[in-house]
Amino acid sequence: MRLVLASTSPRRRDLLARLGVEPARIASPDVDETPLPRELPRSYVLRLAEAKARAVDRAPGEIVLAGDTTIALGRRILGKAEDEAEQRRMLELLSGRRHHCLTAICVIDTQGKMRTRLSDTIVAFKPLSTAEIDAYLASGEGLGKAGGYGIQGRAEAFVRFLSGSHSGVIGLPLFETRALLATAGVALG
Asked: Of these residues, 14, 32, 57, 68, which one is catalytic?
């Protein structure tokens, strides 16, 4: 069995390596990530993970793994920060508040059966000063990341509380991923 990772994220590849898994192939799924009208964050992230898994061609004997991460502030979805202005707005919203980091993963096994899991991690940021936000923006670290931050870097110093999966906040919850891959028949290290 060959594993296809439906993600070009180097973070997801690094996290898979922690499970002793090396994807045989990397594929970039082409999926519209625009939330549907009135779509709630949990439904959104699950829908995207499934859509990404389905968007990748699967040859006989291949297993596809896809994931999606979003930040939920109440019912509000904070997707990937595309520019500094959007990133600043997100960090100002998250400053001093709790939020949910939702990561959905989806596996399609060799028989075409789809299974999904959702990791919900509560993250609380300390109150951020304008200077702290400015310095973080200058690092360029959170662009293209859900909520405008990457917990595996400088933003980890903003976290005063975390309950759930640290690896899920990075983008691939290892506990849930291991369970799904084992069920699909992937040999784990």
From this structure: 68
